[in-house]
Amino acid sequence: MSGSSRLTLAQDLNVANDLTIQATAGIQRSNSSAAAIKVSGDVTSNDSDYLSTSSSGNRIATVALVGAGDQTLTGNGAQHSVNVSKTGGDVLLPANFIVRDGGFSGSGAIKNTSGTETSGRLVFGGNNVSTSFTGTIDDLYVNQNQRLTLSADLNVTNDLTIQKVQGIQRSNSSAAAIKVSGDVTSNDSDYLSTSSSGNRIATVALVGAGDQTLTGNGALHYLDIDKSGGGDVLMPAFNRNFVAVTVSSGEWDVLGNTVTATSGFTAHGGAIAGSGTLNGNLTLNSGSALNVGINGDTPVTQHDQLVVNGAVAINGAALTGTTGAAPSGSITIVANDGTTTSASGSSPVRVPRQRCDNRWAGLRDHLQRRHWQRWSF
């Protein structure tokens, strides 16, 4: 397909093999039509500027992948709207492929076949992109001037990079999140609270079975740690500033970091472990746990200690952990800043030396006698 004027569809255009878009001012469907270009082979797009140029009364048309085998998306251009409705096979990306100013829908597997983490990515670009895609994407790169809107969970099996975006939001009727099994890089610091009317900022959920790294000079809005398969959340070069952090499953070891969440930290499941500083309120709900290691007197180096600059609420959470060498005196495992703590007044959590036995029974009895009746063991 090559030309400077528009291609207008009044019905589906079925391509049994390959589609190449070299140049066009617009691929559109007439206003009364739901027509699409349905392709069973590969798609190459070398035109990056036709995307939103439908004429008055018409609508940009979708390119639908409908083949029974693997199909490749390639080219130095972009696509406006892509639907994946394949009866078999995967969608292969040997290089980065851009979806701009439109939509991405359907299901299936989007595979990075480039052999590198910086190529073979699906790229959401341009201005607004909406996605209801329910399949998996190996690697996703977000580089938009305006908003990315989710109406279904977006599952990223490898890495997510947020380079630029005005807002990552879920539609008002959706609880959609971006669920990432690999690493997350955010280089955009100002997208956080810019959802459009009627929508809500979307969560980035870490769901991988191994260690996952947060990096970049930007920020994230909502972070959910949902790592039932294990592994740590590493933040070696990240500003560690969030609006809210939740733990849904697995264990979040704070690893000595200072982490800020303006709307607080909440554990609904899983555990919070290790030492570090949490700037924000901490809530440990039923089904979650505080996991503490004790092997001596010195905070951080010989026993875990969380410093919480905010209120601490213990709502039926469990206390778990391991002990080695007993401390010579009482130790503090949660150092609160003195603000209201719903289950224990404003006191920090102190553990007497004689209560640090290997079975935690003494510690359990002590805490249950001393304001921590809501802990369960």
Short structural description:
This protein is 2% helix and 45% strand. By secondary structure, it is an all-beta fold.
Q: Cα distance, first to last residue?
A: 68 Å
Residue runs with pLDDT of under 50 for 5 or more positions: 342-347, 352-377
Based on CA inertia axes, which overall geometry fits?
elongated
- DSSP helical segment count: 1
Q: Report the mean per-residue pLDDT as an integer.
A: 84
**Strand fraction band?**
over 45%
* Protein structure class: mainly beta
- The counted number of beta strands is 44
Reading side by side through the largest sheet, how are the strands ordered?
Answer: 3-6-9-12-15-18-21-24-27-29-32-35-38-41
Radius of gyration: 25 Å
Percent range of helical residues: under 10%
Specify the biggest β-sheet.
Answer: 14 strands, parallel
3D architecture notes:
The structure is a single chain. This protein is mainly β and 377 residues long. The protein has a domain at 1-89. Helix content is 2%, strand content 45%. The protein contains one helix and 44 strands. It has a 14-stranded parallel beta sheet, with no helix packed on it. Strands 2-5-8-11-14-17-20-23-26 form a nine-stranded mixed beta sheet, with no helix packed on it. It starts with 5 loop residues before the first strand and ends in an 8-residue tail after the last helix.
